[in-house]
Each structure stands twice: as structure tokens, then as C-alpha cells.
Design goal:
Strand content: under 5%
Largest sheet: none
Number of helices: 6
Mean pLDDT: 87
Shape: elongated
Distance between the termini: 59 Å
Helix content: 55-70%
Length: 117
């Protein structure tokens, strides 16, 4: 395993000593970034938390910013130019799209008690 030497302030050094052998695990967790910006998740969660009607669910769409980012990712994907981070981002958009399609199709029973039109 590679060894890394860092200079840190005394108070941080004391905190690091307390975590001991868990330090590699904690560093790995800190370095993991969500595939999409937090405001993208907030937009979706705020919509779902608003208890939308079936009509609002049917009309739900990504923001213009999300649409533009997705267009860029798809263009880069078709050109074979996606970085691994961009691939993760595109995969996350695809997972979200799948959930939204299920919501729109009425596949989730808690969305609407009446059949979809």
C-alpha cells in the first residue's frame, strides 16, 4: 500500500489520531462525490415532497440547465469522448429518468390511487 506523508495543523493531527486505522476509509468517503450537483437532487426531491397530482407528475420535466447538461453528455457519449466521471453523471441521469418514467406510468401505487389515463 502506498504511503503518503502530510503536514497538518496540530488540532487536525489530534483528530486524525483518534480515527486511527479508519483514516483510509474516511478519506475514501470524503473523496466520493455525488454524480450530480446537489441542486439537481433538491429539485427532484422538492417536487416529490410537494405531493404532486397525477397531472403535475405527467408535466414534470428537467430544468433547462439539466436538459443542457444532458445534451452535452449525450453528444460527448455519441462521440466516444466521455470521461469516467461524465459516464457516472450520465448513468445517474438515466436512473432518474427511469424513476420518472415509472412515476408517469403510474407504476408506483403511492403516487395515485386512480388508474392512469
Amino acid at each position: 500500500m502506498p504511503r503518503i506523508i502530510l503536514e497538518v495543523p496540530s488540532e487536525l493531527s489530534e483528530q486524525l489520531a483518534q480515527v486511527g486505522s479508519r483514516l483510509p476509509e474516511l478519506l475514501a468517503q470524503c473523496l466520493k462525490q455525488p454524480p450530480l450537483p446537489a441542486h439537481t437532487y433538491c429539485y427532484i426531491l422538492n417536487f416529490l415532497a410537494s405531493n404532486p397530482t397525477p397531472e403535475e407528475i405527467a408535466a414534470f420535466a428537467p430544468t433547462l440547465e439539466m436538459q443542457e447538461r444532458l445534451r452535452i453528455l449525450l453528444t460527448r457519449s455519441h462521440a466516444g469522448e466521455l470521461t469516467p466521471v461524465e459516464r457516472m453523471e450520465l448513468d445517474e441521469y438515466e436512473r432518474i429518468e427511469h424513476v420518472v418514467i415509472m412515476l408517469k406510468a403510474g407504476s408506483l401505487p403511492y403516487v395515485s390511487s386512480s388508474p392512469s389515463a
